[in-house]
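We treat protein structure as text, and this decision shapes the records that our systems exchange. This encoding replaces a full spatial description with a residue-level series of whole-number codes. Below, we set out a record of this kind in full and without editing:
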Amino acid sequence: MIRHGQTAWNVEGRWQGFEATPLNAVGLEQARALAAYWPTRLSAIYSSDLARAWQTAEILATAQGIRPIADERLREFNLGIFQGLTWEEMQRRYPAEADASRGD
């Protein structure tokens, strides 16, 4: 299991969910470094079809000489009205829901 590289929304602390946020320059470099480092030969790479995960998978797959396989079941959760918000924005706009999401 590999997590996608950095996006602008990661830096800003925004919840991404189903949003197709692309990798930023750091994320692209992280994916390239991963591809250069990866110690074993892979026979397959499965990835979410969302941009950030797909870009990461494509870079690693290219280095491996294979093509990644997209599978939407690997997407992050759909966060609905919370997608694109920071935790602070969620608390301000939806305080009851923010409190409930913390659990006990």
About this structure: The helical segments are 8-12, 25-37, 51-64, 87-93, 95-102. The radius of gyration is 16 Å. The longest strand covers residues 46-47.
